[in-house]
Amino acid sequence: MRTAHDIIIKPIITEESMMGIMAKKYTFKVAKDANKIEIAKAIEEVFPGTKVVKVNTMNVRGHERRQGMHSGYTPSWKKAIVTLAEDSKEIEFFNDMM
User: Fold this and answer.
1) Phi, psi (degrees; rounded to nearest 5) at 21
2) Which pTM does this prediction carry?
3) CA distance 98 to 89
């Protein structure tokens, strides 16, 4: 049985993801085999007082990288954009970044 911390790997801090905070949309890097229901339950468990309304997921392909004449790909990963309810508590971690 996986824990919530196994599903949610880390938050994604970019300009675009920080602009979504005003609409209560938070972006996370999640486990590749996690589904939307598992992600929603993990967010509600890790951040008490939050209520997830919607989860959008996308698979991000690895980018090609070169080292001299050798080339390879970075690992692919999964990104989740979590939308919280209007009456839900905000995630303080992201508020400290602003």
Assistant:
1) -65, -35
2) 0.89
3) 17
* pLDDT per position as a tens digit, 64-84: 999 999 999 999 999 999 999
Residue that is written with structure tokens 């951040």 in the block: 47
Distance, first Cα to last Cα, the chain: 35
Q: Is 95 helix (H, G, I), strand (E, B) or coil?
A: helix
Instruction: Give the Cα separation of 7 and 30 in Å (integer).
Output: 6
Helix (H, G, I), strand (E, B) or coil at 6: helix
pLDDT in tens, 24-49: 999 999 999 999 999 999 999 999 99
Instruction: Check residue 25 and report its DSSP letter.
Output: E
CA atoms within 13 A on the CB side of 59: 7
